[in-house]
Amino acid sequence: MPNFNSPDTFLLADRTVRRMGYGAMQLAGPHVFGPPKDHAAALAVLREAVAAGVNHIDTSDFYGPHVTNRLIREALHPYPDDLVIVTKVGSVRDSDGAWLPAMEPAEIESAVHDNLRNLGLDQLAVVNMRIMGDVHAPKEGSIEKQVTALAELQRGGLVCHVGLSNVTPAQIAEAQRITQVVCVQNHYNLVHRSDDALIDDLAAQGIAYVPFFPLGGFTPIQSSALSYLAQKLGATPMQLALTWLLHRAPNILPIPGTSSVAHLRENLRAAQLKLDADVLAQLNAMGGEG
């Protein structure tokens, strides 16, 4: 089995992971709700990812809900020793599939137990506290209660490490006064770069940054420019956007998701692309947000 992953690694908490990971969200049904259209294909994607060298999988028990974690368990349990499964809490789904905040201490504890049960684990390696904010953008406000609740579960041995998702620099600093923060998962990509300064600050601290929406928010002009560059390099726009993330900072850990083995292989090949200074300059010029 060819290994398409990058030899580059980063220390996520106390575990060395390959920088190109896999996000399991798309394994659930439409709108991340309900079971997958093709159960066997979902299992095949997970097994292919691990066989290709991926050892960082991002998931949550509110994907489905319960769907992606049960698929991960069915496909991969007992888990390889080097596999780091990162999950998140902070939301639940109603009967219509809506995303509802679930950030009270009792809800956080319940969510941790759901993740443990459905993944078949006694301890979760990393749990991201997902702050709902403005859904896909952080919003200032204290997160002390939520992080304290997760830190208590950490002290109880159910959670090994704590991360944050959809947060501001002030919220990260607040959380760090309560417990160690090992990763931050925010919206960031080639054109949405409001976290540029934060990424550099986290890199200096040795903290992983996990971007979501690697192709979200592109204008038609930006999309055309990306497609043109990708074609010149014999790559896809998605591959080029992922490669740029890997070049941007050593602590960036992309987690592209897919429900297709062919698309998974395509994503992982992005780790092998080499960008020269001219291409990087053209990509950097596409940034539209500060």
**Into how many domains do the coordinates divide?**
1
Fold-level CATH name: TIM Barrel
Straight-line distance between termini: 42 Å
| Main beta-sheet strand count, sense and barrel state | 7 strands, parallel
CATH superfamily: NADP-dependent oxidoreductase domain
Q: Low-confidence segments, ≥5 residues, pLDDT <50?
A: none
- Any idea what the CATH architecture is? Alpha-Beta Barrel
- Top-tier CATH class: Alpha Beta
- Could you estimate the helical fraction of the residues in percent? 25-40%
- Biggest sheet, strands in spatial order? 3-4-5-8-9-10-11
Mean model confidence by pLDDT: 94
Number of helices: 10
Radius of gyration: 18 Å
- The chain-level structural class is alpha/beta
Shape: globular
What string, H for helix and E for strand, traces the elements in order?
EEEHEHEEEHEHEHEHEHHHH
* Total DSSP E strands: 11
Strand content: 15-25%
Question: Which helices and strands occur, and which strands form pairs?
Answer:
Elements (H helix, E strand, L loop, with lengths): L8 E4 L2 E4 L3 E2 L15 H13 L4 E3 L8 H10 L7 E6 L1 E3 L5 E3 L3 H15 L4 E7 L13 H12 L3 E7 L3 H8 L4 E7 L8 H10 L2 E5 L7 H14 L3 H12 L12 H9 L7 H8 L6
Parallel strand pairs: 3-4, 4-5, 5-8, 8-9, 9-10, 10-11
Antiparallel strand pairs: 1-2, 6-7
